[in-house]
Amino acid sequence: MKAKVYIKHRQEILDPQGKAVLQGLNNLGFSGLTDVRVGKYIEIALDCPSVEAARAQVKDMCERLLVNTVIEQYTFVIEP
Question: What gap in Å lies between CA 23 and CA 40, rounded to an integer?
Answer without folding.
Answer: 20
